[in-house]
Write a structure and sequence with these properties.
There is one protein chain. The chain is of the alpha+beta class. The protein has one domain: Cyclic Phosphodiesterase, Chain: A (Alpha-Beta Complex), CATH 3.90.1140. The chain is built from 7 helices and 10 strands. A hairpin with a 2-residue loop joins strand 4 and strand 5. Helix 1 packs antiparallel against helix 7.
């Protein structure tokens, strides 16, 4: 079982609905049948769409704040939830504008503003929840391909269990896997990303015109490594009330 602390708008938010439709799964409703290929993707073959969205569909629409972790033997889910509620209650809401862009070969929603506010929350959360994180096994460490990381990223991996934290952190809300020319019907990676970008931009245009309230975080839980993540708790910023599953 793994937990992660992510940002995602509420289930009924238009952006959440649009992104979940694109990915083919709503992490707020894990037991519901997976929707069929979205009508927006009519220009994509079913197999192409499934491959493009395979990994982000498993995680659900989100922006990483604290990457997935297993609980230490001395920690409990109840203690994690309590610390999470307290952490969220201390945060101040703000808004963030998002744009569709490319990051490391995949397409994601990237912040246009409020970068320092998101970075601060992410850094504080990584530190706050480090006592709950079981150290990485050697197998999990190798899955991060440490030889391909920079020295600073390897240091972050060994200290925090994830290489892209602190000064390496870059907030994003993933919508595709990494796109290569073997994933699409185009001749080059660039052409393939441009084609998918156009389809996604048309699908999300109305939802990215208005800034999103960054006023809560969610705990996602993965029952086992072969299962998808699902939302199990939500914490509202500056409010002792919780929105629970």
């Amino acid at each position: 079982m793994r937990y992660a602390i992510y940002f995602t708008p509420p289930q009924d938010h238009p952006l959440t609905r649009a992104a979940s439709q694109w990915l083919g799964r709503d992490p707020f409703a894990p037991d519901s049948a997976r929707p069929s290929q979205p009508s927006v993707a009519d220009d994509l073959a079913q197999a192409e769409w499934c491959k493009l969205t395979e990994s982000p569909r498993r995680y659900g629409f989100h922006g990483t704040i604290v990457a997935p972790f297993e609980l230490t033997n001395s920690a409990s889910e109840e203690a994690l939830f309590s610390a999470f509620d307290q952490f969220c209650a201390k945060q101040t809401p703000f808004s963030v504008a998002l744009r569709l862009g490319e990051l490391a070969g995949f397409l994601a929603l990237l912040p246009v503003n409020s970068l320092s506010a998101i970075r601060r929350i992410a850094a504080d959360a990584v530190q706050a929840f480090l006592p709950f994180r079981e150290p990485l096994s050697e197998a999990d460490r190798q899955r991060r391909n440490p030889a391909a990381l920079t020295e600073n990223q390897r240091n972050m991996l060994d200290r925090y269990g994830y290489p892209y934290v602190m000064d390496e952190f870059r907030f994003h809300m993933t919508l595709t896997d990494r796109i290569t020319d073997t994933d699409t019907d185009t001749d080059t990676d660039t052409d393939g990303r441009a084609r998918i970008h156009s389809i996604l931009q048309d699908h999300l245009r109305d939802q990215t015109c208005t800034p999103v309230a960054f006023d809560s975080l969610s705990i996602f839980m993965q029952p086992s490594r072969d299962k998808p993540f699902r939302v199990v708790r939500q914490g509202v910023f500056g409010d002792d009330r919780k929105r629970n599953e």
